[in-house]
Sequence to fold (60 residues):
Amino acid sequence: MLATSEIAKLKREIATLRDIVGQSRPGTKNPMSSAERLSLKSEIDRCILELDELRGKLSQ
Fold:
Protein backbone atom coordinates (compact mmCIF):
# COMPACT_ATOMS: atom_id res chain seq x y z
CA MET A 1 0.00 0.00 0.00
CA LEU A 2 1.36 3.41 -0.97
CA ALA A 3 0.30 5.06 2.29
CA THR A 4 2.21 2.48 4.34
CA SER A 5 5.34 3.15 2.31
CA GLU A 6 4.98 6.90 2.83
CA ILE A 7 4.51 6.45 6.59
CA ALA A 8 7.74 4.41 6.68
CA LYS A 9 9.53 7.27 4.88
CA LEU A 10 8.05 9.77 7.34
CA LYS A 11 9.31 7.73 10.29
CA ARG A 12 12.82 7.64 8.78
CA GLU A 13 12.75 11.41 8.27
CA ILE A 14 11.62 11.96 11.85
CA ALA A 15 14.53 9.83 13.07
CA THR A 16 16.90 11.92 10.93
CA LEU A 17 15.48 15.16 12.35
CA ARG A 18 15.82 13.76 15.87
CA ASP A 19 19.52 13.12 15.21
CA ILE A 20 20.06 16.58 13.69
CA VAL A 21 18.34 18.35 16.58
CA GLY A 22 20.31 16.28 19.08
CA GLN A 23 23.58 17.20 17.39
CA SER A 24 22.65 20.88 17.16
CA ARG A 25 22.09 21.60 20.82
CA PRO A 26 24.01 24.39 22.57
CA GLY A 27 27.51 23.28 23.46
CA THR A 28 27.79 20.89 20.52
CA LYS A 29 29.95 21.25 17.44
CA ASN A 30 27.18 22.74 15.22
CA PRO A 31 24.60 24.46 17.44
CA MET A 32 21.49 25.96 15.80
CA SER A 33 20.81 29.63 16.23
CA SER A 34 17.67 30.73 18.05
CA ALA A 35 16.13 31.77 14.72
CA GLU A 36 16.87 28.37 13.19
CA ARG A 37 15.36 26.59 16.18
CA LEU A 38 12.23 28.76 16.04
CA SER A 39 11.87 28.20 12.30
CA LEU A 40 12.25 24.44 12.68
CA LYS A 41 9.73 24.40 15.54
CA SER A 42 7.23 26.32 13.39
CA GLU A 43 7.68 23.90 10.49
CA ILE A 44 7.22 20.92 12.82
CA ASP A 45 4.05 22.50 14.23
CA ARG A 46 2.73 22.99 10.67
CA CYS A 47 3.45 19.35 9.83
CA ILE A 48 1.70 18.21 12.99
CA LEU A 49 -1.40 20.17 12.01
CA GLU A 50 -1.40 18.63 8.54
CA LEU A 51 -0.97 15.14 9.97
CA ASP A 52 -3.80 15.81 12.40
CA GLU A 53 -6.06 16.79 9.48
CA LEU A 54 -5.18 13.54 7.71
CA ARG A 55 -5.87 11.55 10.86
CA GLY A 56 -9.28 13.22 11.08
CA LYS A 57 -10.08 12.28 7.48
CA LEU A 58 -9.21 8.65 8.25
CA SER A 59 -11.58 8.55 11.22
CA GLN A 60 -14.61 9.67 9.20
User: Anything to note?
Assistant: The two ends are 20 Å apart (CA to CA).
